[in-house]
Amino acid sequence: MYNVKTFNAISQDGLDKFSDKYQINQIDNPDAYLIRSANMLDADFPENLKVIVRAGAGFNNLPIDRLSELGIAAFNTPGSNANAVKEVVLSMIIASVRHLFPVANFSANNLHADISKMKKIDPRFKGTEIRDKTLAVIGLGHVGSLVANAANDLGMDVVGYDPYLSSDAAWRIESDITRANTLEDAIKDADIITVHVPKNDETTDLIDEEAIKQMKTGVSILNYARLGIVNNQAVVDALDEGKVASYITDFGDDVLMNREDVVITPHIGGSTVEAEGNGAVRGAKIIQRYLETGNLSQSLNLPNMNVSMHSPYRITLIHKNIPNMVGQIATKAADNNFNINQMSNGAKGEMAYTMVDFCDEPTEQLLNDLKSINEVIRVRVIKRK
Ligand SMILES: NC(=O)c1ccc[n+]([C@@H]2O[C@H](COP(=O)([O-])OP(=O)(O)OC[C@H]3O[C@@H](n4cnc5c(N)ncnc54)[C@H](O)[C@@H]3O)[C@@H](O)[C@H]2O)c1
Ligand SMILES: O=C(O)[C@H](O)COP(=O)(O)O
């Protein structure tokens, strides 16, 4: 029996995907965590924990280096909620140029008002259209590429900026979308700017006072990525100066409170029934595959590995990516008179992963010998079902 602990609201669609070999939230020493944006940066992890899946895109809530040192495989499910974010961002772009939130607020308090009088009271009642306006999309991954294509289809002039664009992502982007070579080139002529990058050291304060200076007066900015990618204080200053017209974000803080030119949603970009279902279902599949076969793909800290299990026993080893690990592992097997049926090895950054298949059940002596190899972090035995 395997044990899974969940954090946050995990969709039942995903929990239903676990086979009857799995117990959910029943014991305190689980094999797997299935989480959303629960902050794990300072968490202690149970000794038995082998895998964490973040059902969703942003993984800045996971201490990836520490998980690697503990031999815990980490995953996210990028793309699972991208359509949900695209839809809310498109809605917010249109809401922003039509001033729908202040206008609706006004109407809620002045229901009797005559429409022509209302237009005189507040010129914002006349909005603009998005067609032929320029949208800058910063980050063209799963979310950004969908936003860029959808805005292009609605008649916007779209400029994208992503210096690390993967070839897969490049294929997804419509050909009439302009690729900018620098952030400045992307934002300087934009009427609206939306950020879709991961939160890391490089993207913290990506949109700061300096970046805002390079923008057109009257620009609108959206942040459905993470708190801190756009510097909220710099935006407030620019709103006060009239440089920025409006700011729409999923990540509010105190400096943004009680302003008509700011719209804050409470981190709901990926919160749809469909998106939460997608992430949880993928998470459940990743956990079962990793625990039952050792196979994995698109992990955040380990290499891809996909080897069919033809032998009755498999040993998986998480270790440092240094020379002669494979040789040492094979030597320990030979020293213990174990014949290797199949052996696979791969590396990702400083981490490496080796799977060794045997006909015979591994002995305690073999396992202890493997664990004794310097730089081996975790040794696990999997029995074929
Ligand atoms: N509001 C929400 O609920 C919600 C939902 C999903 C994702 N997100 C956030 O959005 C982010 C993006 O999600 P995604 O699924 O598109 O991720 P993704 O990994 O598919 O795409 C991120 C893209 O950003 C690019 N990038 C990285 N650094 C960059 C930089 N300095 N400048 C420009 N581009 C850069 C990458 O090359 C990549 O193409 C996530 O990391 C997460 O923080 C928020
Ligand atoms: O990065 C993400 O996937 C989103 O921010 C969604 O986060 P959530 O799972 O906490 O809603």
UniProtKB/TrEMBL annotation:
Pathway where this protein functions: Amino-acid biosynthesis; L-serine biosynthesis; L-serine from 3-phospho-D-glycerate: step 1/3
Keywords assigned: NAD, Oxidoreductase
Gene3D superfamilies (UniProt xref): 3.30.70.260, NAD(P)-binding Rossmann-like Domain
Keyword Signal carried by entry: no
Gene Ontology molecular function terms on file: NAD binding; phosphoglycerate dehydrogenase activity
Reaction equation(s) it catalyzes: (2R)-3-phosphoglycerate + NAD(+) = 3-phosphooxypyruvate + NADH + H(+); (R)-2-hydroxyglutarate + NAD(+) = 2-oxoglutarate + NADH + H(+)
EC code(s) of this entry: 1.1.1.399, 1.1.1.95
One Pfam family from the record: 2-Hacid_dh_C
TM helices/strands, residue ranges: none
Domain ACT: 314-384
Top-rank taxon: Bacteria
InterPro entries: ACT-like_dom_sf, ACT_dom, D-isomer_2_OHA_DH_cat_dom, D-isomer_DH_CS, D-isomer_DH_CS1, D-isomer_DH_NAD-bd, NAD(P)-bd_dom_sf
PANTHER family with a match to the protein in the record: FORMATE DEHYDROGENASE 1, HYDROXYPYRUVATE REDUCTASE
Family note: Belongs to the D-isomer specific 2-hydroxyacid dehydrogenase family.
Job of this protein: Catalyzes the reversible oxidation of 3-phospho-D-glycerate to 3-phosphonooxypyruvate, the first step of the phosphorylated L-serine biosynthesis pathway. Also catalyzes the reversible oxidation of 2-hydroxyglutarate to 2-oxoglutarate.
Protein's name according to its UniProt entry: D-3-phosphoglycerate dehydrogenase
